[in-house]
Amino acid sequence: MAEDVIDSVDRLNADCKSAVLDRAALEAAILAKGAAFHEAISTGHEYVFADVPVFITSTQLRKMYEVISAVEQVVKLPGWQAASVEELQKAKGAFFGYDFHLDEHGAHLIEINTNAGGAFLNELLIASQKDVDLPGKAVAIEKLERSIPEMFRNEWRLERGSAPFKTIAIADEQPEKQYLYPEFLLARSMLERDGIEVYIADPAAFKAREDGFYFGNEIIDLVYNRLTDFSLQRHPALLKAYTSGQVVLTPSPAHHARYADKSNLARLTDAEYLRSLGASEEDIATLQVGVPHTSLVQKSTEETMWQQRKELFFKPNSGYGGKGAYRGGNVTKRVFAEIMQGDYVAQKMAQPGERAVCVQGAEPVMLKYDVRCYVYDGKIQLVAARLYRGQTTNFRTPGGGFALVRVVE
């Protein structure tokens, strides 16, 4: 039966015509979100939504659950936390992204992101296709549109108890110029329907005063952090408000240090280190299989890494979105020498899956995909894929973008 399911999934992913996105249903859902969102998503976002769903097996989904659970258990260990940074808040951190490459052997965690974009866009995508006849089923918790606001309310309760919760600021540098600005509009609309005032803010406009943390004339209770300045060194007002407890920040620098700094991947694949922390043998075994072996880049291993480079992917510890990342087989000696000087990790290659796409009726082309699990407090909220061509996801590939994930039993 398992082999039959794998064969079925492989056939579906290899056929660009048998199961395609219902663009009319998606367009109707976009229009229903209002003129501002429609205009934003229609300008320069031709490849934000992929033409086809990605199909996975229930076994692959279970393997992703197992890896996420093992990571969550390890990062709770006291020694792990001491090795990252002091936790200044009780908040769990909104919308972590666990990114996987899948194959016939299961799921391979390539990185964790604590400012994972796309959740609101994928909620819209999932909702738009709910009545479309497609193989398998989508992966999302029930009543997602209600559970997302509840996540932010829970972040507030963890910090402030029963105090009134009135305002959220979605923070990013020059937010209107960000590629995912349209989802900020979706987030604002969803949260405002839940009775919360929402502002989309450049953190340069924040002001800390004696009576509160302000955006313009409005006191901000909670900041939904979408910045890629993970330590907030470029944003002193927000950093001070966070460290002083003046505002609830989610996700925070502590969340990034604990989960998303790429050096954590090396710790997650070091069995002896995990044993020294008191990790269970079951979790260690899961991580050994589910996370491609990762090492810190060091001058002492330069010669060995050069010889093995074709099997490695180099990532900056504080990187995001594939910036500064290099496939080892493509690096020149000059770039390799620069990598050896920086804060990088070397991760064993885990090949992405492939999905056939017929762009505008042309002959099928194979695009790569990765699968992102959006996670809150260790629980998967929804699962989506990203289709792309090239080294990393880019939203510049015809037929590519965020893709619906369907699990075939």
Commentary on this structure:
α2 packs across α6 (119-128), α3 runs antiparallel to α8 and α4 packs across α13 (281-290). With 409 residues, this protein is of the alpha+beta class. It has 2 domains: 2-263 and 352-408, no CATH class; 293-349, Dna Ligase, domain 1 (2-Layer Sandwich), CATH 3.30.1490. It is built from 15 helices and 19 strands.
Ranges with pLDDT <50 over ≥5 residues? none
**Percent of residues in β-strands:** 15-25%
The proportion of residues forming helix, as a percent range, comes to: 25-40%
Instruction: Compute the number of helices.
Output: 15
- Rounded radius of gyration (Å): 21 Å
| Whole-number mean pLDDT | 93
Between the first and last Cα atoms, what is the distance in angstroms?
10 Å
Task: Assign the structural class, choosing from mainly alpha, mainly beta, alpha/beta, alpha+beta, or little secondary structure.
Answer: alpha+beta
How many strand elements? 19
Biggest sheet descriptor: 8 strands, mixed
Tell me, briefly, the overall form. globular
The number of domains is 2
Topology summary:
Layout: H1 2-14, H2 23-32, H3 35-42, E1 54-57, H4 58-75, H5 78-83, E2 96-103, E3 106-113, H6 119-128, E4 137-138, H7 144-160, E5 167-171, H8 181-193, E6 197-201, E7 206-209, E8 212-215, E9 218-219, E10 222-225, H9 236-243, E11 248-250, H10 253-260, H11 263-268, H12 271-277, H13 281-290, E12 294-296, H14 302-308, E13 312-316, E14 326-327, H15 333-341, E15 344-348, E16 353-357, E17 365-376, E18 379-388, E19 401-408
Parallel strand pairs: 1-19, 5-6, 5-10, 10-11
Antiparallel strand pairs: 2-3, 2-17, 4-19, 7-8, 8-9, 12-15, 13-14, 13-15, 16-17, 17-18, 18-19
Helix pairs in contact: 2-6, 3-8, 4-13
